[in-house]
Structure formats: C-alpha cells, structure tokens
Amino acid sequence: MEHKVFDHTVKQSISFRPFDLNRDFPSVFKWMHESHVIPYWQLNFPKEELFQHMKKAVHDQDQCLYIGLLNGQPMSYWEAYWVKGDVVEGSYPAEPFDQGIHLLIGEKDYLGKGLALPLLRAMVNVQFRHKATQRVIAEPDYRNKKMIHVFEKCGFKQMKPIQLPDKKAMLMFCERDVYEKRWPHVYS
Fold first, then answer.
1. Is 130 within the bounds of a domain?
2. Among the four 25, 42, 170, 177, which has the fewest Cβ within 10 Å?
3. Is residue 39 part of a domain?
4. Into how many domains does the chain fold?
C-alpha cells in the first residue's frame, strides 16, 4: 500500500511505497555505497551479500521496508519496525505497540535542501496511523548530529545513549500527543 501526502511546507508530494527487492535493490545497493551513508548504515557490502541481507529483511514480519519518493522520484529508504522483538527492546521499558524507524536519503541531489524533516514527519504520520501506537522511537548513531537535530525538530526527545550490537546510539522518543500538537495542520 502506498502512502502519499502533499507537504505544504516544501510544496512537494511525499510518498512511500513498499520496498520491492527486484525493483529497488539496484538503488539501495547504490545508496548503501554513498559516502554520506556508509558511516551510519555500515551496509556497503558486496552486491550478493547485500542482496541476501535485504532478502532477509523483506521477510522479517516485524518490519516494513519502504522506498521514499519526492514528486514520484525514488530518493530514500525507510525501515519501520515494531520495537517488541527488536534488539533495541531491552534498552527501555517498551510498550507493546511502540514502533521504530530507520532512514536514509540516498540520492545526493536531495541532501542539504531541508527535506529530511518533511520526509521524517510524513513517515511518523504513517506510523501513527496505527491507532495503538503511542510512541515512535529512533536510535540514530550518536555521531550523527544532523539527524539527531532533525528528529528533535520533528518532535523526538533525546532519552539516553545506548549501545546496540552495531553502534553507539542516541535513543529518542516521539510521543503521539507531542507529534500531534506540533503538526496539527501540516497535511490538511
């Protein structure tokens, strides 16, 4: 199912469609090898190894993978996941319907244009469409100050540094009430 909104702040259409391994792998492979992505994702694997990694991710019932599009152009990759059962679950007292998010803007042409916040805001909106979800979490690499700042602008709050198997991260929470108060009319 595709999710689409028109973001009035950037006057552009933002949409997310389910990741299709055959269709989207070439783009994700390219993006995972971009210099701005490598330090934070560490998935700059050889083609076959990354393909197997992505194949496993597609079949993980606890997450949904998306390609983010701006005005119909694929330019970002997203993972929306359930915290219960994820490695981050033990980092805080997780509620049953907490969701988490991972993202990357893959296409360099879209960097530095103020798009990260509108894209993130749109995906969090998708996650809060699940009525039982009251919290969306993020755990960006603690060195990624730009993304931590974007998460904060969206409504996330820094909770504490945590150690995950692949990185030291900053655990961040976005509560539904905070998000809805901050962005009541963005898509109306």
1. yes
2. 177
3. yes
4. 1
